[in-house]
Amino acid sequence: MKKLAKLIALLGLLAIVLYPLLWMLATSFKPATEIVGSIGLWPAEPTTEHYPSGWSSMDVGFGRFFLNSTIIAGLTVLANCASCLLAAYAFARLRFRARKLWFAAMIGTLLLPGHVLIVPQYILFKAFNWIDTTAPLVVPKMLATEAFFIFLMVQFMRGIPRELDDAARIDGAGPYQLFWRIIVPLSKPALVTSAIFSFIWTWNDFFTQLIYLNDLEKITVPVALRNFLDSTGQTSLGPMFAMSVLSLLPVFAFFVAFQRMLVQGINTTGIKG
Amino acid sequence: MHRAAMSQVTSRRALLLGALSVPVLAACGGGGEPEAQTPAPLSTDPVELSVFWWGAEARAKSTEEALKLYTAKNPNVTFKNTWQGNQGYFDKLATLTAGGNAPDLFQIDDGALSEYAERNVTLDLTPYRNNGRLDVSKFPESLWKYGEIDGKLAGVSTGENTPGVIYNKQLCQELGIAEPKTGMSWAEFITWAEPVYAKSGNKVYGTMDPSADYKALWMWLRQQGKELYKDKKIGASKEDVTKWFDLWADARKRGAAPTADIIHEANGGDVTKQLVVTGKALTSFLWANQITDVQKNTKQTLGVMAYPGNPSAQWARAAMYFSVARTSAKKDRAVDVINFLVNSPEVGKLWGADRGLSANLDVRKAVADTLTDPTAKTAFAFETDMAGKFGQAPPVPPKGHVKARALLITIAESVQYGKASSADAADQFIKEANAALG
Amino acid sequence: MPRSVKGSSRTREGVAGYVFLSPWLIGLMGITAIPMLGSLVLSFTSYDLLSPWEDLEFVGVRNYVRMFTEDPHYLHAVTVTVVFAVVAVPLKLGAALGVALLLNREQRFTGIFRGLFYLPSLLGGSVALALVWRAMWAKDGAVNTILGLDGPNWINEPDYALGTLVMLAIWQFGAPMVIFLAGLKQIPNELYEAASVDGANRWRSFWHITLPGLSPVIFFNLVLETINGFQGFTSAYVVSGGTGGPVDSTLMYTLYLYQSGFTDYEMGYASAMAWVFLVAIAIITAVMFSTGKFWVHYGDGSS
């Protein structure tokens, strides 16, 4: 009985949460004039034309943009997870000089609104000869510039009982062995969470990708989606909606696949024993 | 396979067209200027020019085709094309410029031209016009002059447009209402719009309220012998602007124009949100050449007229420009490319009215003969008719125009929503806009 | 343990700390810090993006003074942002925590449920989002229809537009939800087992086990969502079409900053705004960290 109530509550909530997305899906099947003229849910004259026309648009086609986005997002996931885990371990578990100061600096890098950094960053990356390459999108992530993930992992690591370290220390483990034997296996929830966000946020990031990618062959999904819109001129809302719906699928699949690893979770007792 | 075949066909066609157009161009180029001034020929070393523009896919295709035509004639010149939708375009252009990486050639509009020209980003094209490398002799004079800022030619108009009221012709007929006509006074226009709401069964308003539209305010001021901008200040008095806001407050009260929330929807200028598209009003205040894009979003037949009042307030305005970066290492070549783009009849035919009506009048005529789309024909007929009515062009809007334009929207909306009186809003507009322009 | 051994292990740890930190340090020095300091310097200039560098003028603290004395739009943006953050952040966190608790247990379809609840956040700040959200809150849109209201077009009313952005923030609660879920996974099961042996009811074990166990993650979400809430650029930009309208009702701090920098070409002024923002948020964050001592329980025994 209680279970049923819970299920009904969940489904009700889900209906509210998903309605706007359902609307978006339905709109991708409306002819162009209906999209701008009506905001009802069901298409009066449904059409599937926007999917093929959107997919094959812009010469190189959307398949290319999906590939580009996948590569950049995939690299970002690896780079973020590896580099941030190292830094987080240092902050969470090791004692070293000026630790608090560096920690404060790390939090500080989260606070400055990004728009004032765009131009200085562009000048810097130009000095590195990175313009027109994917380096500005990936290399910084390899150097743990996304403090969000460091802080996230720090918070998780601080939840790992110290007794585990002590037990390992008695066996003669140093900081490096502790990292491999205790921290890496036990950081799975934090890593999975970081991977999910890295992928999704990179998938959706418009501005950086807009600034640094110039060739049509290199652009990514969010940039391509905006190429459907010249708001004072030609605007192709139908293909834009259709491709927006499609662009949700890879990230949705990525999420569902990765959150399974949250399911397995960790069992600290298993390691202890 | 298919694409390769296509491009082969196009390039062959391009070559053919290129060969044909040489005599035409030569004929254009000679006019008026003494041949002796012809400068040294351009270098034939291989060179790549970066070109940057905003637009959607159709414009991208036609622009790339046009640049291929140029390469067909000048095989040593290739292009690195970057294009994008309009969102973020000026952010990227500014970032590239700030980073010392401005594209050799870029598209710009009269909202940004002064910002770039007054800050010395754009190359002064006057010497090229003088030595004949840049030929604007077939342009209406006021049109190319509308690219001059402080005596420097900062951009070359790619085409002409002018404000236009786009109206729902079909619905006028269905409701048994006469179509609005160029030359109606503002009062007559509002009176014309008033009965629409009732006649349509309280569904459609007569007209959009353009009190937040700087074009409308500008035309209205020009009809009284004033300007929106004068000496880099607002050229209107507080009383003028108050009267303007009151005019439309009255129109709203009479039900000729819709309520504030509906007006707000269209104030952003998006084609797809215009009331004539969404069916909430019979008219929208836009640019005349936008009728083709608006028409694509509605099944109702549309018409276009000048803004109310005396049409001589309007002028041949540059729809957009191409400019050359002052820092470009390939200036001469970049100018030559612009010269080709704006004067070649082939490019004209490729572009149609996408960047405004061709600036070169010979090209425009050639393009007109190839028009088949009825809406494009309507737009063309309207602008041809207006050409005889145009008044003198004002200077290009000064630095700070974009902010002043945004301020007018915010402040006019505060009147529309009843959050401020016309007089207070007018006062605020003049103060803040002047600060932005200063 | 003899002193010398302990001492050498301390040194070893000190070195290891910098070894593990080195990628981040290189990133900080080479990539993050330079543009940040650059913007700090620019905040004392009249930098306008376009003029050549030799025209750059130092103006002292004029940008900072202007913000507080001559710019009513700035103060208005501060108000809008504070209202938004104060309302949206707790509601979003509450929604995220609630749904995370509902979806914590492994059952059939839990994965799909989580994914579906996360879907709105996948939209991020995409272009489609603006159109979707506008349609929901339109006069004859879903909200008015479903609630049977003769309501206005909410997004187009200056009095309600900010409210629709709050609703949007809540709707996209996926990120903190996932973090909560991951945090719940870290609470050792044996704690619950022990509690149920002691006869604790659900509510007691939530209060005494779940909340303390989750507190590091609650703390993280609180800090980050507060920062995000104050930064709140994307939704305001997307929904208002970059204007902050109607009548400046959704003119968030960072949106105004962006407009100043990129549409008004006053990047010096925008940089000054950014640094004031940094200082203000740093103070708020510092306060949170200092109160964290009292309610955040770390498994490693530290606080």
Secondary structure: elements and pairs:
The complex is a heterotrimer of chains A (273), B (438) and C (303).
Chain A: H1 2-27, H2 32-37, H3 50-55, H4 62-93, H5 99-108, H6 118-127, H7 135-142, H8 147-157, H9 162-170, H10 175-186, H11 188-204, H12 207-212, H13 221-226, H14 237-264, H15 268-272
Helix pairs in contact in A: 4-7, 4-8, 4-11, 8-11, 11-14
Chain B: H1 2-30, E1 47-54, H2 57-73, E2 77-84, H3 89-98, E3 105-108, H4 113-118, H5 126-130, H6 141-145, E4 148-149, E5 152-153, E6 156-161, E7 163-168, H7 169-175, H8 186-193, H9 196-199, H10 214-222, E8 229-230, E9 233-234, H11 238-253, H12 260-267, H13 275-278, E10 283-287, H14 291-295, E11 302-305, E12 317-324, H15 331-343, H16 345-351, E13 357-358, H17 361-370, H18 374-387, H19 401-416, H20 422-437
Parallel strand pairs in B: 1-2, 1-3
Antiparallel strand pairs in B: 3-12, 4-5, 6-12, 6-13, 7-10, 7-11, 8-9
Helix pairs in contact in B: 1-2, 2-16, 11-20, 16-17, 19-20
Chain C: H1 3-42, H2 62-69, H3 72-102, H4 110-122, H5 127-136, H6 142-146, H7 161-171, H8 174-185, H9 189-197, H10 202-231, H11 234-239, H12 253-263, H13 267-295
Give a short synopsis of this structure.
Chain B has 20 helices and 13 strands.
Would you write up a description of this structure?
The complex is a heterotrimer of chains A (273), B (438) and C (303). Chain A has 273 residues and is mostly helical. Chain A contains 15 helices and no strands. Chain A has helices spanning 2-27, 32-37, 50-55, 62-93, 99-108, 118-127, 135-142, 147-157, 162-170, 175-186, 188-204, 207-212, 221-226, 237-264, 268-272. The radius of gyration of chain A is 23 Å and the shape is globular. Chain B has helices spanning 2-30, 57-73, 89-98, 113-118, 126-130, 141-145, 169-175, 186-193, 196-199, 214-222, 238-253, 260-267, 275-278, 291-295, 331-343, 345-351, 361-370, 374-387, 401-416, 422-437; strands spanning 47-54, 77-84, 105-108, 148-149, 152-153, 156-161, 163-168, 229-230, 233-234, 283-287, 302-305, 317-324, 357-358. Chain B has a six-stranded mixed β-sheet. Chain B has a three-stranded antiparallel β-sheet with strand order 10-7-11. Chain B has a two-stranded antiparallel sheet with strand order 4-5. In chain B, a hairpin with a 2-residue loop joins strand 4 and strand 5. Chain C is mostly helical and 303 residues long. Chain C has helices spanning 3-42, 62-69, 72-102, 110-122, 127-136, 142-146, 161-171, 174-185, 189-197, 202-231, 234-239, 253-263, 267-295. The longest helix of chain C is centred in the N-terminal third of the chain and has 40 residues, at 3-42. The relative contact order of chain C is 0.12. Chains in contact: A-B, A-C, B-C.
